[in-house]
Amino acid sequence: MQRIDLQIPVPGATLAAWWYVPGGPGPHPAVAMAHGFGAVKEMFLDRFAECFAQAGLAVLVFDHRGFGASGGMPRQEADPVLQTRDYRHAITWLCARPEVDRGRIGIWGTSYSGGHVLQVAAVDRRVRCAVAQVPMVSGRAQTQRRVHPARMAAMHGLFHEERDRLAAGQAPRLRALIPTQDGAPSVYDAPEAVAFYAQGERLAPGSFVNAVTLSTVAHSTEYEPGAQIEAISPTPLLMIVATDDSITPTDLALAAYQRALEPKRLVLLPGDHFVPYEREFERASSAARDWLVAHLGASQ
After folding, report:
1. CB proximity list for 257: less than 8 A, separation 6 or greater
2. Each residue of 71-91: pLDDT tens digit?
3. Cα separation of 77 and 15, whole Å?
4. What is the structure's pLDDT at 2?
5. Could you say which of 109, 110, 175, 274 has the lowest number of CB atoms within 10 Å?
6. How buried is 35 (Cβ within 10 angstroms: 0-12 exposed, 13-18 middle, 19+ buried)?
7. For 76-105, b where at least 16 C-beta lie within 10 A, e where not — what string?
8. pTM (2 decimals)?
9. Please, what is the angle between helix 214-222 and helix 139-146, to 10°?
10. Which range has the worst mean pLDDT, 19-28, 36-45, 266-275?
C-alpha cells in the first residue's frame, strides 16, 4: 500500500487528496471519502483510510473545496450543494482510473459529509455501497434543537444581512467553530466539540482554520440530506450512530434509519458525536471496512 498526494481539478476548484492504492495489479474496488463540518483530512481520516486500504480497497480522501489544501473561493465556506457535487466529481475521477473497477465504488462520510453520503447515494447509481457515520440528516430539525425560538428571528436577520453584504461585493464574514479568546459567538460550545476542533491546529498545522463563513451556517440550517433516504435502496447503506449525539442528534439519525429501505445496517457506538475518531475508532472503522468489503469485494 502506498499513499500519493494529489490535486484533482474540478469545476471551480482543485481538491487536495490522498490516494491510497493497495498492493497487487487490481482492478481494485474504491472508496471516496471526506471530512465533516469545517474539518480537514488530517483530523483522523488517515486512520480510516489506512484501515480500508489494508483490506484491499483503493481510497481517495479529499479536502472539501475552500478548506485545507484544496483550492476554491470563498475560503472556509461549506456549501452542501458544491460539496455533494465534489463527491460526484471524486467518483468520476475514480471511474477513470485504470487501477479501479468502476463497477465497485463506495462512498464514506462523517457528520456533515455523512449527510452528503445520504444525498449522493440517493441519486448516483454509480455508488454501489455507502457508509454514513454520525450523519447530519436535517438542518431544520437540528437548528430547532440548538436555537431558542426567541433567537430564531435574529439569526435569520443576520443571514439576510450577510446576503445583502455579499451582493454589495463585501467580503464574507466568518464565524468561529469553537470559542476564541475574544468571546465572539461560535458555532459550537459543547465540550466534546471544543475538544475535537481544538486538535485541528496540532493535527493539521497551517491547514485547519477555526472558522467558517456565516453563509456556511445559513446553508446548514437549510440542508435536508435525509429527505430522500428511502431512495438510496437498493444501494447498501450502513449508518454508524452515536448513542449520545447532540451535534447530529441521535434520535433524528435513528428515525432516518427507520425510513431507509433494505439493504441496510445500523451500528450504535456508545458516547457522543466525536467518539468514532478516537475512543470508538476500532468499532467504527472495522464496521465500515467490513461493510465496504462485503459489498464491493476485495482486490483481484
Report:
1. 229, 239, 241, 264, 266
2. 999 999 999 999 999 999 999
3. 14
4. 83
5. 175
6. buried
7. bbbbbebbbbbbbbbbbbbeebebbbbebb
8. 0.97
9. 110
10. 19-28
Torsion of CA 263, 294, 137, 145, to 10 degrees: 110
Grid cell 454589495 is found at 168
Name residues whose C-beta falls within 8 Å of residue 28's C-beta, 6 or more positions apart in sequence: 21, 22, 56, 57, 58, 99, 100, 101, 104, 299, 300
* 74/81 Cα distance (integer angstroms): 14
